[in-house]
Structures are given as C-alpha cells and as structure tokens.
Amino acid sequence: MSVKQNYKTIKQDIVDTCRRVGRDPDEVTTIAVTKYVTIDRANEAINAGITELGENRSDEFLNKYQAIGQAANWHFIGTLQSRKVKDVIDNVTMVHSLDRHSLAKEINKRTNRTIPCFVQVNTSGEDSKHGLEPEEVKLFIEQLSSYSNIKVVGLMTMAPLVEDESMIRKSFRSLKELRDDIQQLNLSFAPCQHLSMGMSHDFQIAIEEGATHIRIGSKLVGQD
Ligand SMILES: *Cc1c(COP(=O)(O)O)cnc(C)c1O
C-alpha cells in the first residue's frame, strides 16, 4: 500500500474515533515512525502530507536527517544515549523518551533552545519496557526545574504487547491520570499538556483515552 493510501485510512480512523468520544481530531498529531523504512519511503510520507517523522536511534535519525532535513519535524522516540545527545539535539523537534536525570542534564548542556520533552513512563509493569515507574514521575519532574532548556510538554508510554484490550486501555488511562496530577502542580517548566501514546495496533484506544500524539510505524509507512 502507498503511504498516501495508508494515511487516508488512518486519518479516517482518527476522525471516527474522535467522533465516538467527542474529541476534536485536530487535537491528535500523527507521527510517522520511519525507523524500519528507507529514505524513499520517508519521503513518500512527506509527499503524502505528513509533517512529523519519528526515529528511535540516533544513527538512523542522522542518516535520514541528512537526506530529508527540515522538510519534516523530527521526533526522537527511542532510548537516547547521553553521548549521542550532542549529535542530534539541535535537529529534533521533540524528545519523547526522557527517562533519566543524566539525559536531562546532557540535553540542557548541549543546546541553547528550549527542547519540548515527554517523560517516558512504564505503565505496563513489564520489565522490558523503558521509562520511569509511575510513582517516580512527580519527583523526577520537580527535579528538572534547574534545567532551563527543558520543557516537559507531556508524558509518553508504550502499552503492553497483549491482545487484552482492557490491559492496554488501563495502561493509557493511568498515563492520563498521572498527566492530570502533574498539571495540578502548575510548574512553569512542566505544563505537561500532552500524551504521546498509541501505535499501529492500539492508536484508537489511545485516542479514546486522550492521546495527543500517536506514533505509527508499520500501519502507516510499513510495507504491510
Ligand atoms: C517502533 C515504535 C513505534 C511504532 O510502532 P508500530 O507498531 O510499527 O506502529 C512507536 N513508538 C515507539 C517508541 C517505537 O519504538
């Protein structure tokens, strides 16, 4: 399938899902995750009208950025090694995977602009998932106050890889509750208005639970 066709289908899914729960589809930003695909395929996404691209590794991000540059906004969605921060930070629009202090410190040091960041949370309880434990998030964010180049714009999670829809929903719902708690703190450096959640197989559930940024790879730019 062409990216254009996939995008059309997904956009309609987003509209239908939003209508079901009384949300405005304009509140949902779609990020095309290009980590599995070629530069040509990423360009096909841009030509289909997609403006946001996501990559999860610094080497692949740099590879694509060299070819595509500012024709897209770039979302860094995977584990970011501290020593790679200086290579990527000035060309990323948002970091979705802030998960430790050492990373915040390095980002703060290596840039002169404000970097919008999502704090990644492990809402599934699975050991294999990255991110902070939910109960650690509040203190973690409070301790970012001295990093003037970091703005916490939201929370990010990956749902468990299970068939059971109720478990997926529970994971997204807990992220939203946590987001609401953080907003109550009224921190100027952490408005925390967004929720980055939902992938190819669960983005409708994520939208029902309040996602503002969905990260879609295989269903949008994959060959399947
Ligand atoms: C790969 C990846 C995605 C997209 O996954 P699909 O299932 O292909 O849609 C989303 N978020 C993160 C963090 C990823 O690593």
From TrEMBL:
Pfam families, per database record: Ala_racemase_N
Modified residues (N6-(pyridoxal phosphate)lysine): 35
Gene3D superfamilies found in the cross-reference section: Alanine racemase
Keywords (A to Z) from UniProt: Pyridoxal phosphate
The Alanine racemase N-terminal domain, residue ranges: 30-222
Keyword Calcium: no
Similarity annotation: Belongs to the pyridoxal phosphate-binding protein YggS/PROSC family.
Function: Pyridoxal 5'-phosphate (PLP)-binding protein, which is involved in PLP homeostasis.
Name of this chain's protein: Pyridoxal phosphate homeostasis protein
Taxonomic source organism: Alkalibacillus salilacus
